[in-house]
Amino acid sequence: MNENSTVEPSPLTAKDIGREILILAAVFSVLTALFSFVIYPMFGRTGAAPMPLRTVILVVVIYWLARARGESFSSFGFSRPKRIWLALVLGLAFVAINLFALSPAKEMIRDALSFPPADISALTHIYGNLPAYIGWLVITWVAAAFGEELIFRGYLMNRFAALGGGSATAWAIAILGQAVLFGAGHLYAGVGSAITTSFGAIFTGIFFFVAGRNLWALIIAHGIWDTLGLTLIYLNGTPST
What we know:
Blueprint: H1 14-42, H2 52-68, H3 84-112, H4 130-163, H5 168-184, H6 191-210, H7 216-236
Helix pairs in contact: 1-2, 2-4, 3-6, 3-7, 4-5, 4-7, 5-6
C-alpha cells in the first residue's frame, strides 16, 4: 500500500452507532460511580465535584472508536477553521449571548423551579490560591473547553444526526439529545444545575450547527466562559452564573 494513501472510513450503520454509544455510556457510568463513591471519598473530597479525568478518558475512548473506523477528530468538527479570526469573533459573540441572555434565563428557570444554585463547594479552595487557579485554568481548557465540546457537540450530535439520516429532524433531535446528556453529566452540582445546563446546551448545539459544525468557536467560548467563572471564584469566591 502506498504510504501516502488514506484509509476511507467504513460505512456507518445504526448498529455501529448503537455499539459506540453503549460503550461510552458504560465507561461514563463506571467512571462516575468510581469517582463519586470510591476515589473522591477516599481523599475526603465532596461528591459535588467536577470529574475532568472522566472527560479525558471519554475523549480517549472516542479517539479509539474513531480510529477503528478510519476516522479522526476532524470528522466531528475539530479541524482548522477556514477563518481563524471568524472563529474567535463567533466565540466571543457566544460568550456575550451567554452573559446577557442565556445566563439570566437560566437563573429565571432555577428560581421558578425553586432549585438552589449550583454547588461549587469543591472549587472554593481556588479563592486566593494562585497555583490552584492556574491548575484549574489548564484543566478547564483541556477537559471542559476541548473535551466536553468534542464529546457532546462534535461526537454525539454528529452520531445522533447520522442515526436519522442527517435530516433537519435528525439534527433537531441530536441537539436535544446531547443537551439532556450534557445536563446529566453535571448532576454532581445538583439537579437544578443539571436542568439549567441542559437548557443552555440546547442553544450551544444550535450554535454549533449554524456555525458550520466546526468546534473551534465553541471551544473558545467555553474556555473563556469557564475562565471568567474561575477568575470570579479566585478573586472573591463568587462563581459565574
